[in-house]
Amino acid sequence: MRFWTRLAAFGLACGAVQPAIAQLTMADGSVIEDRAVDSSEQACAAGKADACLVRGLALSKAIGQPIDIDAAAAAFRKACDGGLGMGCDEEADIAARRHDGRRDLKLASDRWARARTIFTMGCDAGNPLACYRLADLLTSNSGMTDQPRAVTLLARACFDLKFGPACVEGSALTGLSTSPVRDAAMATRFEAAVDPALTGACEENRIGACAMLGEWLLGRLGPKDTARITLLADKACSGGAMHGCALAADLVRRADTSAEGWDRRYDYLVRACAVQFGYCSKLADLMRAAPPIRSIDSGMLFLADIKACLAEAEEHCWRLYDPAARLNATELEQLVMTFDQACLNLPRPSAELCASAASNHVERAEAVPAGATADRAEARRLYQRALELPEENEDNPTAHNEARAFLAGN
Predict the structure, then answer these.
(1) HEC secondary structure over the chain
(2) Which of 61, 139, 380, 389 could lock onto 351 through a cystine, CB 3.0 to 4.6 A?
(3) Average pLDDT rounded to a whole number, residues 235-252
Protein backbone atom coordinates (compact mmCIF):
# COMPACT_ATOMS: atom_id res chain seq x y z
CA MET A 1 0.00 0.00 0.00
CA ARG A 2 2.69 2.51 1.06
CA PHE A 3 0.74 5.74 0.76
CA TRP A 4 1.15 6.99 4.30
CA THR A 5 4.07 9.31 3.60
CA ARG A 6 1.49 11.73 2.19
CA LEU A 7 0.13 12.27 5.69
CA ALA A 8 3.35 13.54 7.23
CA ALA A 9 2.97 16.94 5.57
CA PHE A 10 -0.73 17.30 6.35
CA GLY A 11 -1.19 15.86 9.84
CA LEU A 12 -3.95 13.36 10.61
CA ALA A 13 -7.57 14.35 10.13
CA CYS A 14 -10.42 12.50 11.76
CA GLY A 15 -13.15 11.44 9.35
CA ALA A 16 -15.38 8.86 11.03
CA VAL A 17 -18.60 7.75 9.37
CA GLN A 18 -21.41 9.84 10.85
CA PRO A 19 -24.77 8.28 11.74
CA ALA A 20 -27.40 8.76 9.05
CA ILE A 21 -31.19 8.68 9.07
CA ALA A 22 -32.13 5.61 11.09
CA GLN A 23 -35.56 4.12 10.31
CA LEU A 24 -36.05 0.48 11.20
CA THR A 25 -38.57 -1.83 9.51
CA MET A 26 -39.90 -4.56 11.80
CA ALA A 27 -41.08 -8.03 10.83
CA ASP A 28 -44.75 -7.02 10.82
CA GLY A 29 -44.02 -4.19 8.37
CA SER A 30 -44.20 -1.36 10.87
CA VAL A 31 -41.49 1.29 10.62
CA ILE A 32 -39.75 2.58 13.75
CA GLU A 33 -39.06 6.26 13.10
CA ASP A 34 -35.59 7.73 13.33
CA ARG A 35 -36.32 9.59 16.57
CA ALA A 36 -37.16 6.34 18.35
CA VAL A 37 -34.08 4.63 16.92
CA ASP A 38 -31.83 7.56 17.84
CA SER A 39 -33.17 7.65 21.41
CA SER A 40 -33.05 3.89 21.89
CA GLU A 41 -29.61 3.88 23.51
CA GLN A 42 -30.70 6.20 26.31
CA ALA A 43 -34.07 4.46 26.69
CA CYS A 44 -32.40 1.05 26.82
CA ALA A 45 -30.00 2.27 29.52
CA ALA A 46 -33.09 3.35 31.47
CA GLY A 47 -34.36 -0.24 31.38
CA LYS A 48 -36.92 -0.17 28.55
CA ALA A 49 -36.78 -3.60 26.96
CA ASP A 50 -38.48 -2.60 23.71
CA ALA A 51 -35.90 0.18 23.23
CA CYS A 52 -33.12 -2.35 23.81
CA LEU A 53 -34.58 -4.52 21.05
CA VAL A 54 -34.69 -1.54 18.68
CA ARG A 55 -31.11 -0.62 19.55
CA GLY A 56 -29.90 -4.18 19.04
CA LEU A 57 -31.58 -4.43 15.65
CA ALA A 58 -30.19 -1.07 14.54
CA LEU A 59 -26.65 -2.04 15.57
CA SER A 60 -26.78 -5.54 14.09
CA LYS A 61 -28.39 -4.51 10.78
CA ALA A 62 -26.40 -1.30 10.18
CA ILE A 63 -29.42 0.98 10.41
CA GLY A 64 -28.01 4.49 10.08
CA GLN A 65 -24.70 3.41 11.61
CA PRO A 66 -22.00 0.75 11.27
CA ILE A 67 -22.54 -2.71 12.73
CA ASP A 68 -21.28 -3.07 16.29
CA ILE A 69 -22.01 -6.68 17.10
CA ASP A 70 -20.86 -6.63 20.73
CA ALA A 71 -23.03 -3.60 21.54
CA ALA A 72 -25.90 -5.26 19.68
CA ALA A 73 -25.52 -8.46 21.70
CA ALA A 74 -25.53 -6.47 24.95
CA ALA A 75 -28.73 -4.67 23.90
CA PHE A 76 -30.40 -7.93 22.91
CA ARG A 77 -29.47 -9.44 26.26
CA LYS A 78 -31.25 -6.60 28.06
CA ALA A 79 -34.27 -7.07 25.79
CA CYS A 80 -34.26 -10.80 26.53
CA ASP A 81 -33.94 -10.24 30.28
CA GLY A 82 -36.86 -7.84 29.94
CA GLY A 83 -39.05 -10.63 28.59
CA LEU A 84 -38.79 -10.08 24.81
CA GLY A 85 -38.31 -13.33 22.94
CA MET A 86 -36.86 -11.60 19.89
CA GLY A 87 -34.05 -10.28 22.09
CA CYS A 88 -33.23 -13.81 23.22
CA ASP A 89 -33.40 -15.17 19.68
CA GLU A 90 -31.20 -12.42 18.25
CA GLU A 91 -28.60 -12.72 21.02
CA ALA A 92 -28.48 -16.48 20.44
CA ASP A 93 -27.94 -15.98 16.71
CA ILE A 94 -24.99 -13.66 17.38
CA ALA A 95 -23.43 -16.05 19.90
CA ALA A 96 -23.73 -18.98 17.48
CA ARG A 97 -22.59 -17.40 14.23
CA ARG A 98 -19.30 -15.88 15.35
CA HIS A 99 -16.22 -17.67 14.10
CA ASP A 100 -13.80 -16.62 16.82
CA GLY A 101 -13.22 -17.30 20.51
CA ARG A 102 -16.32 -15.35 21.45
CA ARG A 103 -18.58 -17.94 19.86
CA ASP A 104 -20.69 -19.39 22.69
CA LEU A 105 -22.93 -22.31 21.77
CA LYS A 106 -24.06 -22.88 25.35
CA LEU A 107 -25.24 -19.30 25.65
CA ALA A 108 -26.97 -19.63 22.28
CA SER A 109 -28.73 -22.81 23.37
CA ASP A 110 -29.89 -21.25 26.64
CA ARG A 111 -31.18 -18.11 24.90
CA TRP A 112 -32.96 -20.08 22.19
CA ALA A 113 -34.69 -22.14 24.87
CA ARG A 114 -35.83 -18.94 26.59
CA ALA A 115 -36.99 -17.51 23.27
CA ARG A 116 -39.01 -20.64 22.60
CA THR A 117 -40.75 -20.35 25.97
CA ILE A 118 -41.58 -16.67 25.47
CA PHE A 119 -42.77 -17.18 21.89
CA THR A 120 -44.96 -20.10 22.96
CA MET A 121 -46.63 -18.00 25.64
CA GLY A 122 -47.12 -15.12 23.23
CA CYS A 123 -48.55 -17.30 20.50
CA ASP A 124 -50.94 -18.96 22.93
CA ALA A 125 -52.11 -15.46 23.85
CA GLY A 126 -52.83 -14.63 20.20
CA ASN A 127 -49.70 -12.71 19.17
CA PRO A 128 -49.12 -13.50 15.46
CA LEU A 129 -45.49 -12.36 15.50
CA ALA A 130 -44.77 -14.77 18.36
CA CYS A 131 -46.31 -17.63 16.36
CA TYR A 132 -44.26 -16.62 13.34
CA ARG A 133 -40.97 -16.40 15.26
CA LEU A 134 -41.64 -19.70 17.03
CA ALA A 135 -42.28 -21.38 13.67
CA ASP A 136 -38.97 -19.96 12.42
CA LEU A 137 -37.16 -21.48 15.41
CA LEU A 138 -38.77 -24.84 14.72
CA THR A 139 -37.67 -24.82 11.08
CA SER A 140 -34.23 -23.18 11.25
CA ASN A 141 -32.82 -24.38 14.56
CA SER A 142 -31.38 -27.89 14.27
CA GLY A 143 -31.84 -28.54 17.98
CA MET A 144 -35.56 -27.71 17.92
CA THR A 145 -36.72 -28.99 14.52
CA ASP A 146 -40.45 -29.68 14.42
CA GLN A 147 -41.69 -28.74 10.98
CA PRO A 148 -45.22 -30.14 11.33
CA ARG A 149 -45.79 -27.93 14.35
CA ALA A 150 -44.21 -25.02 12.48
CA VAL A 151 -46.82 -25.41 9.74
CA THR A 152 -49.58 -25.42 12.36
CA LEU A 153 -48.19 -22.22 13.90
CA LEU A 154 -47.88 -20.50 10.52
CA ALA A 155 -51.41 -21.54 9.64
CA ARG A 156 -52.73 -19.96 12.83
CA ALA A 157 -50.77 -16.75 12.28
CA CYS A 158 -51.79 -16.56 8.62
CA PHE A 159 -55.40 -17.74 8.52
CA ASP A 160 -56.65 -16.79 11.98
CA LEU A 161 -54.51 -13.74 12.75
CA LYS A 162 -54.01 -12.42 9.17
CA PHE A 163 -50.23 -12.08 9.51
CA GLY A 164 -48.88 -11.82 5.98
CA PRO A 165 -45.25 -12.90 6.56
CA ALA A 166 -46.57 -16.18 8.00
CA CYS A 167 -48.58 -16.76 4.83
CA VAL A 168 -45.46 -16.22 2.72
CA GLU A 169 -43.38 -18.55 4.88
CA GLY A 170 -46.11 -21.17 5.05
CA SER A 171 -46.42 -21.20 1.27
CA ALA A 172 -42.68 -21.70 0.89
CA LEU A 173 -42.44 -24.39 3.57
CA THR A 174 -45.32 -26.53 2.32
CA GLY A 175 -44.71 -25.87 -1.36
CA LEU A 176 -41.07 -26.93 -1.66
CA SER A 177 -40.67 -30.23 -3.47
CA THR A 178 -37.93 -31.28 -1.04
CA SER A 179 -39.80 -30.25 2.13
CA PRO A 180 -40.70 -33.02 4.57
CA VAL A 181 -44.02 -31.22 5.15
CA ARG A 182 -44.87 -30.68 1.50
CA ASP A 183 -48.61 -30.28 1.09
CA ALA A 184 -49.81 -28.90 -2.24
CA ALA A 185 -53.29 -28.10 -0.98
CA MET A 186 -51.98 -26.28 2.09
CA ALA A 187 -49.40 -24.41 -0.01
CA THR A 188 -52.20 -23.21 -2.31
CA ARG A 189 -54.21 -22.07 0.69
CA PHE A 190 -51.26 -20.19 2.12
CA GLU A 191 -50.53 -18.60 -1.24
CA ALA A 192 -54.10 -17.41 -1.64
CA ALA A 193 -53.90 -15.70 1.76
CA VAL A 194 -50.72 -13.72 1.08
CA ASP A 195 -52.16 -10.90 -0.98
CA PRO A 196 -55.17 -10.11 1.27
CA ALA A 197 -53.10 -10.24 4.46
CA LEU A 198 -50.26 -8.05 3.20
CA THR A 199 -52.64 -5.68 1.43
CA GLY A 200 -54.50 -5.18 4.71
CA ALA A 201 -51.27 -4.48 6.58
CA CYS A 202 -50.11 -2.09 3.85
CA GLU A 203 -53.40 -0.19 3.96
CA GLU A 204 -53.09 0.00 7.78
CA ASN A 205 -49.81 1.85 7.23
CA ARG A 206 -47.48 -0.97 8.14
CA ILE A 207 -45.40 0.25 5.26
CA GLY A 208 -42.91 -2.60 5.16
CA ALA A 209 -45.79 -4.92 4.26
CA CYS A 210 -46.20 -2.97 1.02
CA ALA A 211 -42.66 -3.89 0.04
CA MET A 212 -43.15 -7.52 1.15
CA LEU A 213 -46.20 -7.77 -1.06
CA GLY A 214 -44.37 -6.21 -4.01
CA GLU A 215 -41.47 -8.63 -3.61
CA TRP A 216 -43.84 -11.58 -3.36
CA LEU A 217 -45.77 -10.55 -6.46
CA LEU A 218 -42.56 -10.03 -8.40
CA GLY A 219 -41.27 -13.47 -7.43
CA ARG A 220 -44.36 -15.37 -8.56
CA LEU A 221 -44.38 -17.32 -11.79
CA GLY A 222 -46.36 -15.97 -14.71
CA PRO A 223 -47.26 -12.43 -15.79
CA LYS A 224 -46.32 -9.59 -13.45
CA ASP A 225 -48.55 -6.70 -12.49
CA THR A 226 -45.61 -4.33 -12.70
CA ALA A 227 -47.74 -1.21 -12.33
CA ARG A 228 -49.10 -2.44 -8.99
CA ILE A 229 -45.69 -3.63 -7.82
CA THR A 230 -44.20 -0.25 -8.67
CA LEU A 231 -46.88 1.54 -6.64
CA LEU A 232 -46.24 -0.75 -3.69
CA ALA A 233 -42.48 -0.23 -3.90
CA ASP A 234 -42.83 3.55 -4.13
CA LYS A 235 -45.22 3.63 -1.16
CA ALA A 236 -42.83 1.55 0.93
CA CYS A 237 -39.82 3.63 -0.07
CA SER A 238 -41.61 6.92 0.63
CA GLY A 239 -42.73 5.60 4.01
CA GLY A 240 -39.26 4.65 5.20
CA ALA A 241 -39.11 0.92 4.41
CA MET A 242 -35.84 0.75 2.54
CA HIS A 243 -36.36 -2.63 0.94
CA GLY A 244 -39.10 -0.82 -0.96
CA CYS A 245 -36.47 1.54 -2.38
CA ALA A 246 -34.30 -1.42 -3.34
CA LEU A 247 -37.30 -3.11 -4.97
CA ALA A 248 -38.11 0.07 -6.89
CA ALA A 249 -34.51 0.25 -8.14
CA ASP A 250 -34.70 -3.37 -9.28
CA LEU A 251 -37.93 -2.70 -11.17
CA VAL A 252 -36.26 0.17 -13.02
CA ARG A 253 -33.28 -2.06 -13.84
CA ARG A 254 -35.61 -4.58 -15.47
CA ALA A 255 -37.52 -1.99 -17.49
CA ASP A 256 -35.17 0.86 -18.38
CA THR A 257 -31.50 0.49 -19.31
CA SER A 258 -31.10 4.10 -20.43
CA ALA A 259 -29.07 6.77 -18.65
CA GLU A 260 -32.33 8.16 -17.29
CA GLY A 261 -33.13 4.73 -15.90
CA TRP A 262 -29.71 4.68 -14.25
CA ASP A 263 -30.54 8.05 -12.68
CA ARG A 264 -33.75 6.69 -11.19
CA ARG A 265 -32.03 3.62 -9.79
CA TYR A 266 -29.34 5.86 -8.34
CA ASP A 267 -31.92 8.05 -6.57
CA TYR A 268 -33.65 5.05 -5.02
CA LEU A 269 -30.41 3.46 -3.82
CA VAL A 270 -29.08 6.73 -2.41
CA ARG A 271 -32.16 6.81 -0.20
CA ALA A 272 -31.75 3.18 0.82
CA CYS A 273 -28.03 3.54 1.56
CA ALA A 274 -28.65 6.62 3.71
CA VAL A 275 -30.87 4.61 6.05
CA GLN A 276 -29.50 1.07 5.91
CA PHE A 277 -25.80 0.59 5.16
CA GLY A 278 -26.39 -2.89 3.73
CA TYR A 279 -27.83 -1.30 0.58
CA CYS A 280 -24.70 0.78 0.03
CA SER A 281 -23.03 -2.13 -1.75
CA LYS A 282 -25.76 -1.97 -4.41
CA LEU A 283 -25.24 1.78 -4.70
CA ALA A 284 -21.47 1.46 -5.04
CA ASP A 285 -21.85 -1.25 -7.69
CA LEU A 286 -24.30 0.94 -9.61
CA MET A 287 -21.95 3.91 -9.46
CA ARG A 288 -19.15 1.79 -10.92
CA ALA A 289 -21.48 0.85 -13.78
CA ALA A 290 -22.49 4.43 -14.58
CA PRO A 291 -23.19 5.32 -18.22
CA PRO A 292 -20.31 7.15 -19.93
CA ILE A 293 -22.36 10.35 -20.04
CA ARG A 294 -22.73 10.41 -16.23
CA SER A 295 -19.92 11.64 -14.00
CA ILE A 296 -19.43 9.97 -10.63
CA ASP A 297 -18.43 11.76 -7.44
CA SER A 298 -15.44 9.73 -6.24
CA GLY A 299 -15.98 10.93 -2.68
CA MET A 300 -19.54 9.58 -2.64
CA LEU A 301 -18.36 6.28 -4.08
CA PHE A 302 -15.67 6.08 -1.41
CA LEU A 303 -18.24 6.71 1.32
CA ALA A 304 -20.63 4.12 -0.15
CA ASP A 305 -17.83 1.54 -0.04
CA ILE A 306 -17.09 2.46 3.58
CA LYS A 307 -20.70 2.01 4.60
CA ALA A 308 -20.97 -1.28 2.69
CA CYS A 309 -17.77 -2.50 4.34
CA LEU A 310 -19.16 -1.69 7.78
CA ALA A 311 -22.34 -3.63 6.95
CA GLU A 312 -20.45 -6.91 6.33
CA ALA A 313 -19.81 -6.54 2.58
CA GLU A 314 -16.09 -7.27 2.95
CA GLU A 315 -15.37 -7.04 -0.77
CA HIS A 316 -16.12 -3.33 -0.48
CA CYS A 317 -13.50 -2.98 2.25
CA TRP A 318 -10.87 -4.07 -0.26
CA ARG A 319 -12.23 -1.69 -2.90
CA LEU A 320 -11.28 1.21 -0.65
CA TYR A 321 -7.67 0.58 -1.65
CA ASP A 322 -8.40 0.99 -5.36
CA PRO A 323 -8.14 4.81 -5.44
CA ALA A 324 -5.47 4.98 -2.73
CA ALA A 325 -3.10 7.14 -4.77
CA ARG A 326 -5.78 9.83 -5.05
CA LEU A 327 -7.06 9.86 -1.46
CA ASN A 328 -6.59 12.96 0.63
CA ALA A 329 -5.52 12.96 4.27
CA THR A 330 -9.06 12.83 5.63
CA GLU A 331 -9.98 9.93 3.35
CA LEU A 332 -6.87 8.02 4.32
CA GLU A 333 -7.81 8.40 7.98
CA GLN A 334 -11.32 7.20 7.15
CA LEU A 335 -9.83 4.14 5.48
CA VAL A 336 -7.80 3.28 8.58
CA MET A 337 -10.78 3.73 10.88
CA THR A 338 -13.01 1.68 8.58
CA PHE A 339 -10.66 -1.30 8.60
CA ASP A 340 -10.31 -1.03 12.38
CA GLN A 341 -14.09 -1.00 12.89
CA ALA A 342 -14.64 -3.83 10.43
CA CYS A 343 -12.05 -6.00 12.18
CA LEU A 344 -13.24 -5.28 15.71
CA ASN A 345 -17.00 -4.81 15.36
CA LEU A 346 -18.29 -7.13 12.63
CA PRO A 347 -19.44 -10.62 13.67
CA ARG A 348 -17.40 -12.54 11.10
CA PRO A 349 -14.41 -10.56 9.79
CA SER A 350 -11.64 -12.43 8.02
CA ALA A 351 -8.11 -12.81 9.36
CA GLU A 352 -6.93 -11.09 6.18
CA LEU A 353 -9.03 -8.01 6.89
CA CYS A 354 -7.66 -7.71 10.44
CA ALA A 355 -4.09 -8.18 9.24
CA SER A 356 -4.63 -5.43 6.68
CA ALA A 357 -6.07 -3.19 9.39
CA ALA A 358 -2.94 -3.81 11.46
CA SER A 359 -0.62 -3.14 8.54
CA ASN A 360 -2.30 0.25 8.03
CA HIS A 361 -1.09 1.22 11.49
CA VAL A 362 2.38 -0.20 10.91
CA GLU A 363 2.76 1.88 7.74
CA ARG A 364 1.44 4.98 9.45
CA ALA A 365 3.87 4.48 12.33
CA GLU A 366 6.72 4.46 9.83
CA ALA A 367 5.41 7.57 8.04
CA VAL A 368 4.34 9.62 11.06
CA PRO A 369 6.80 9.13 13.95
CA ALA A 370 4.82 11.35 16.32
CA GLY A 371 2.09 8.73 16.63
CA ALA A 372 4.24 5.65 16.16
CA THR A 373 3.86 4.27 19.69
CA ALA A 374 0.07 4.38 19.60
CA ASP A 375 -0.04 2.96 16.07
CA ARG A 376 2.19 0.03 16.94
CA ALA A 377 0.09 -0.73 20.00
CA GLU A 378 -3.04 -0.74 17.84
CA ALA A 379 -1.31 -2.91 15.25
CA ARG A 380 -0.51 -5.42 17.99
CA ARG A 381 -4.16 -5.55 19.06
CA LEU A 382 -5.36 -6.02 15.48
CA TYR A 383 -2.80 -8.71 14.69
CA GLN A 384 -3.85 -10.56 17.84
CA ARG A 385 -7.40 -10.35 16.61
CA ALA A 386 -6.32 -11.74 13.23
CA LEU A 387 -4.92 -14.81 14.96
CA GLU A 388 -8.33 -15.48 16.52
CA LEU A 389 -9.95 -15.75 13.09
CA PRO A 390 -9.80 -18.48 10.44
CA GLU A 391 -7.72 -18.00 7.29
CA GLU A 392 -9.40 -18.04 3.90
CA ASN A 393 -6.61 -20.31 2.62
CA GLU A 394 -5.54 -22.62 5.42
CA ASP A 395 -2.77 -24.10 3.26
CA ASN A 396 -1.18 -20.67 2.93
CA PRO A 397 -1.94 -18.76 6.16
CA THR A 398 -0.43 -15.45 5.09
CA ALA A 399 -2.42 -13.30 7.53
CA HIS A 400 -1.50 -15.50 10.48
CA ASN A 401 2.13 -15.63 9.43
CA GLU A 402 2.21 -11.83 9.08
CA ALA A 403 0.65 -11.45 12.52
CA ARG A 404 3.06 -13.87 14.17
CA ALA A 405 6.05 -12.18 12.59
CA PHE A 406 4.98 -8.76 13.85
CA LEU A 407 4.11 -9.97 17.34
CA ALA A 408 7.40 -11.86 17.64
CA GLY A 409 9.36 -8.71 16.85
CA ASN A 410 7.26 -6.28 18.88
Answers:
(1) CCCCHHHHHHCCCCCCCCCCCCCEECCCCCEECHHHHHCHHHHHHCCCHHHHHHHHHHHHCCECCCCCHHHHHHHHHHHHHCCCHHHHHHHHHHHHHCCCCCCCHHHHHHHHHHHHHHHHHHHHCCCHHHHHHHHHHHHHCCCCCCHHHHHHHHHHHHHHCCCHHHHHHHHHHHHCCCCCCCCHHHHHHHHHHHHHHHHHHHHCCCHHHHHHHHHHHHHCCCCCCHHHHHHHHHHHHHCCCHHHHHHHHHHHHHHCCCHHHHHHHHHHHHHHHHHEHHHHHHHHHHHHCCCCCCCCCHHHHHHHHHHHHCCCCHHHHHHCCCCHHHCCHHHHHHHHHHHHHHHHHCCCCCHHHHHHHHHHHHHHHHHCHHHHHHHHHHHHHHHHHHHHCCCCCCCCCHHHHHHHHHHHHC
(2) 389
(3) 96
